[in-house]
Amino acid sequence: MGRKMKETPTEVKNIIINHFLQGKFKNVIAETVQKPRITIYYIIKKFKSVGTVENKPRRRCPKKLTDADERWIEPEVKKDPPVNEAKLAKIAESYLNIKVTLQTIRKH
Fold it and tell me: Name one GO cellular component term (predicted).
């Protein structure tokens, strides 16, 4: 179960801003680019405050495991505490379809 949020491409954001600068309404822009009105609203709001629609660079790598994945691993450890990280990594890979390293398992 991965992340549900996806970033809107910069090209689409630029199209939205061009329509906005031409004076079109937000709901018309939303229909044109096939995006929700709230997305259009936030892109325009960011453009007004920052002056650009570029995404900020990330501070670090995104999390490999979601909160639900972490909650799934905890009972597995409690069931059999002496199970080593390598076995847990293989179990996680088979059930969650996520390839995780031993360090990731140790962190959680």
Answer: nucleus
